[in-house]
Amino acid sequence: MSLAPTRTPSSVTVGDDLPELAIPLTRTLIVATAIASRDYQDVHHDPGLAVERGSKDVFMNILTSNGLVERYVAEWAGPAARVKKIKIRLGVPNYPGDTMTMSGSVTAVDDRLVTVDVKGINSLGPHATGSVVVELPEDAA
Questions:
Q1: pTM of the entire structure?
Q2: Rg (Cα) of the chain, in Å, rounded?
Q3: Is residue 141 part of a domain?
Q4: What is the DSSP letter of 6?
Q5: How far is 8 from 113, CA to CA, in rounded Å?
Q6: Is residue 61 included in any domain, yes or no?
Q7: What confidence tier does 40 reach under pLDDT thresholds 50, 70, 90?
Q8: Counting Cβ atoms within 10 Å, is residue 43 exposed (0-12), middle (13-18) or buried (19+)?
Q9: For residue 52, what is the domain's CATH number?
Q10: Structural domain includes residue 3
Q11: Average pLDDT for residues 2-20, to the nearest whole number?
């Protein structure tokens, strides 16, 4: 997804769908983002210990999932928009070698605040579901 021009309240309608975004889930992405967010839990970077603890492989941490949800909506909203609230629930793990496809839909427009319901789905099912509230800049006069 390329960076969109900033959206304004008059350019957004309830029911608008965001373009899908496919995110390849590489081992590097999962491990590097866990370390970058200072999440040193071994299940996010050590395959052997992840398996020993009952997982099939290392898996993405919640901070990375949250960041990818924010990125998805923020890129759609444009550079002048401000993320005000993110609320997600994790489902199935994101494992290396899979792809998570993000999708979203505008569910509320209240003055400059826009609520977008989001889903991140991989081959196992829903990984992240929730909503993001963004504040859009005022319409030009």
A1: 0.91
A2: 16
A3: no
A4: P
A5: 10
A6: yes
A7: confident
A8: buried
A9: 3.10.129.10
A10: no
A11: 87
